[in-house]
Design brief:
The chain is built from five helices and no strands. With 133 residues, the chain is mainly α.
Length: 133
């Protein structure tokens, strides 16, 4: 005879494994420091690309003004300014990413802990059924 409680538990676990569980298991397969390091490296690369695109669009928008004043402009000061804003942008972006990925990691760990407790509960149900039958 089919145990209804065990069937419900198995259905919940299968639904979790099919969708959210895959992502969480992939996240939890890393140590926290490794996961965070990888995500921060990806964030620095993405922030750099985003800054270059934004900077390029900014220069393109006002290109004529820059070309007319390029000989009058202090290029070292301009370069330092660009570098300063780049560093500020990347640090802010990485700080936000650090917070987001930390939360994702802890949520994944918490969710997997719940999943493993359900596995233990399912195993206990099977053991109880074996003892009875």
């Amino acid at each position: 005879m089919i145990n209804q409680d065990r069937l419900r538990l198995m259905t919940k676990m299968a639904a979790y494994e099919a969708d959210e569980g895959k992502k969480n298991m992939a996240i939890a397969s890393y140590f926290r420091s490794d996961y965070m390091g990888l995500q921060i490296i990806k964030s620095v690369i993405c922030a750099t690309l985003a800054y270059l695109i934004i900077f390029g669009l900014f220069i393109y928008y006002d290109f004529e003004t820059y070309m007319q004043g390029i000989y009058k402009m202090d290029l070292m000061a301009f370069g330092k300014n660009v570098l300063f804003y780049y560093v500020i942008f990347v640090v802010a972006y990485c700080l936000i990413c650090y917070i987001v990925y930390s939360l994702r990691y802890y949520k994944a760990k918490k969710s997997l802990k719940k999943y493993y407790n359900r596995l233990k509960q399912l195993s206990a149900m099977y053991d109880l059924e074996k003892r009875k039958g």
